[in-house]
Design goal:
By secondary structure, the chain is mainly alpha-helical. It contains three helices and no strands. The longest helix has 27 residues.
Length: about 70
Amino acid sequence: MGQTVEIPSDLYNKWLRAGRALEEWHNAFEDFLIVHNPVLLRRLRKARKEHLSGKTRPWEDFKRDFARSRKRAR
């Protein structure tokens, strides 16, 4: 432990650019999948409307209910 590895700055910068490009691709692909799934798109729009209209519940309630449903599913 405690060893240092030196990486040339141009190589490091290429790695950073590749990471950003991969993140951009991931976001675009995710958008593509959502747009081409009408059922999911409807559910997302409905959830957004409910959220904006205040139809939400506390996080702790959600976690409790989710944990219960997982126990029942086993």
